[in-house]
Amino acid sequence: MIRYEGFGKRYGRVPAVRDLDLRVREGETLALIGPNGSGKTTCLKAAVGLVRPSAGSVTVLGLDPFRRPAARERLGYLPQRLGFPDAASAVEVMRFHARLRRAPADVAPELLARLGLAAAAGRRTDTFSGGMRQRLGLAVALLGDPAVLVLDEPSAALDPSASLAVRDALRDLAGDGRTIVFASHDLAEVGALADRVALFDDGALRALGAPRELAAGLELPSRLRLGGAGVGPAAAEAARRAGARQVSLSGDELSCEVPPGEEGAVLEALRALGPPLQAISVVAPGVEEVYRALLRPAPRLVA
Amino acid sequence: MAGDAVLTVAGRELRAALRGRLIASFGALFGLLAVGIALAGLGGSGLVLVQDFTRTAASLLNLSLYLFPLLGLVMGAAAFSGSGGDLELLVAQPIRRSTVLAGRLLGLCAAISAVALAGFGAAGLLVGLRAGAAGLEGYLVVAAASLLAGAIGLGVGALLGVVLQGGWSAIGWALAVWLYFAVLFDLALIGALQVFGDARPGLGVAAALALNPVDALRTLALVRLDAELLLGPAGATLVGAYGSGAGFVVLAIAAASWLLGPGAAAAALFARRDL
């Protein structure tokens, strides 16, 4: 759907993205994560034709989005910084963009309703909260039923309710089979939505893959928590002997890190102590652990 | 489709501008001043005289040639510097950048025309009702010159916005350019004429005036007004030098170049610019 081949971008003498090879697969949700200035937004803007590659190429459905407006016909975009004309109502904004996208204008109310803005359709957008503006931006991006959505920090600066509403909307959209590429600093959101994660640092792709694949490749430990009458110093010692690390006791709760594949052995060792265990939870490493692991000096990994 | 899209963008820009504070404030200010000047002209003449349209036009000429380029410069710079945040969303639509630029400029030009129509219309109606239609042609020339000055300001402002990108720096430079158009150039020209000791209107002065579109338009408008009546022997000399012939052609070409050149440069740069 979107293909970066040797893509590089410099702003003056400053390199923003270097030598990126990345292919966004049809129907997947790909999250771009990384620190500020790592190149995420530049990658998204290049896919929409807002920036011109300094090196290599970017294509959307086989077309160069910078030179061929047709590349954007099946692509919806939500910029990081959204602006609407003063005093325009939500429905006016939708009608305007529908006309430009040659989409039927009568889908505007339906899209606004889908994003929870039906009651605000006639309201001026300069009276909207940040969450409402973001959802309106998403509604604009959905005009013309695009096959690809490119979203730059869709839930940035939103309160938890608005952020969750946007996350739910994105989950629904991904369920429709759309290809979604989004940048985010919210690792919980990324973990909840992304099929694959592309981790950028200093303009370079440091890691690409499903969170589980990346965690497995990095041999990141799971987090084990358990409680019950059997939890005590003896249990902690048994866990250590079975291979657990970072073992800690807090009241009647034990938590520890377990290397991949060792979870069963640790649990078996604890059960063998006798008293019953309760409240067992094994949390597999997620995006946050991958992010922490990779943004320390680490070898390049592309899973 | 491209033509439709240009009109769609232009219509949106026009609506947004007419609802915005800048146009509303500017329209109210210019309308009040225009009507005030018309009333002052009528009052000063006691009973209505035949030259009232001409005198009102002459009084409005300087005011409007200060204000309309300022409006155009600021609007053009703001529209293309990306300060509003909606330029990125607009360019991300499946339309050409030239469509975005043409649509925005057309819409903003229509908004400036609406201000000109309101101000000149209100003042003109007042003068027409009291003094009749004599001198109307010159009055319309001044209105057209003001509109052209606004359009030139738009093109220059758009170029500044495209080149500088940052909202406030583009608007800051737009104000600096306006200062050049309105004040600094005239001071420099007067100084130069003093130094070189030949202030007679001729091709040299016309070439110098071509460096400032406001002065070029002012001169072109003055020679179409009853300059002899307004300015006496100086007006007659002005009409002789620039009312026709090479002087007129130089100034007309200068005005046309200022109208088209910055807009074309903005279009060329906007097509390649990163957003």
Please supply descriptive tags for the structure shown above.
heterodimer; A: alpha/beta; four-stranded antiparallel beta sheet; 13 strands; 32% helix; 27% strand; B: 275 residues; globular
List the helices and strands and how they pair.
The complex is a heterodimer of chains A (303) and B (275).
Chain A: E1 2-11, E2 14-24, E3 29-33, H1 40-48, E4 55-60, E5 75-78, H2 90-100, H3 107-114, H4 130-141, E6 148-152, H5 160-175, E7 179-183, H6 187-193, E8 196-201, E9 204-209, H7 211-217, E10 222-227, H8 233-241, E11 245-250, E12 253-258, H9 263-271, E13 278-283, H10 287-294
Helix pairs in contact in A: 3-4, 8-9
Chain B: H1 2-19, H2 21-44, H3 52-80, H4 87-91, H5 97-131, H6 136-164, H7 167-196, H8 203-209, H9 213-224, H10 227-231, H11 233-242, H12 245-270
Describe this structure in words.
The complex is a heterodimer of chains A (303) and B (275). Chain A is built from ten helices and 13 strands. Chain A has 303 residues and is α/β, with parallel strands linked by helices. Chain A has a six-stranded mixed β-sheet, with helices on both faces. In chain A, helix 8 packs antiparallel against helix 9 (263-271). Chain A is globular and about 70 Å long. Chain B is an all-alpha fold and 275 residues long. Chain B has one domain. Chain B is 84% helix and 0% strand. Chain B contains twelve helices and no strands. The longest helix of chain B is centred in the middle third of the chain and has 35 residues, at 97-131. The radius of gyration of chain B is 20 Å and the shape is globular. The two termini of chain B are 24 Å apart. The interface between A and B is medium-sized, with 30 and 27 residues.
